[in-house]
Amino acid sequence: MQPFTTLKGLVAPLDRANVDTDAIIPKQFLKSIKRTGYGPFLFDEWRYEDVGQPEMDCTNRPRKMEFVLNQPRYQGASVLLARENFGCGSSREHAPWALLDFGFRCVIAPSFADIFYNNCFKNGILPITLDDSILDTLFSECGAHDGYALDIDLEKQSVATPSGEVFMFEVDAFRKHCLLNGLDDIGLTLQDGRAIHAYEASRKVEAPWLFL
Predict the structure, then answer these.
(1) Residue 2 phi, psi (nearest 5)
(2) pTM
(3) What does each C-alpha distance from 11 to 18, 63, 75 come to in angstroms?
């Protein structure tokens, strides 16, 4: 998993509450268990005029240009602003996979669905919770200024605006450690690789029949 330390990222504003995981990545794309290839289908029903299907080429699909991610000024955004209860609905891990594959490394919202929030950390995305009043300010500034970017520092737990205003956020210490060091569940386990191999070797001696 790619570590997250600091990010100066272009911001895209998704001014909708209760965005569920089926909107983030619709159900027809859940057939694959690969973590990549979902970016072109992120928010598929909101981005395109037609119905997306797995493995299709999205290059020439008709787009809904009023949707924020189709607007030229937000191309290359790596920070997503959202409203309350982002990521609600089913627990599909494909939702953070799609956000990450599209290019988002951070989502800022007043609140998140619990399972989606946990899945973000396990896949290299930083979900930041800030008060509604702060989100109102960020949405307003983002809409008023092209190229609006935020400076995010996980170690300091801060979000800085172009004007120099700084907002602090809370994050669990263990999750912070894992994200700073790029450790998902597999990475955490592999840190104890020597101890695991030593245990397996001792078990082969103590109970060789288990390995026949």
Answers:
(1) -70, 130
(2) 0.89
(3) 19, 20, 9
Using CA atoms, how far apart are residues 157 and 170, in angstroms rounded to an integer?
7
Angle at which helices 114-122 and 94-102 pack, to 10 degrees? 50
Q: Could you tell me if 132 and 110 are in contact, meaning their C-beta atoms sit under 8 angstroms apart? A: yes
pLDDT tens digits for range 20-72:
999 999 999 998 778 899 999 999 999 999 999 998 999 999 999 999 999 99
CA-to-CA separations, 122 to 72, 104, 177, in angstroms, rounded:
30, 14, 12
DSSP 3-state helix, strand, coil percentages of the chain (rounded to 5)?
Answer: 40, 15, 45
Do 26 and 44 contact (CB within 8 A), yes or no? yes
d(CA 104, CA 110): 17
Map tokens 């939702």 to a residue: 95
Residue type, 23: A
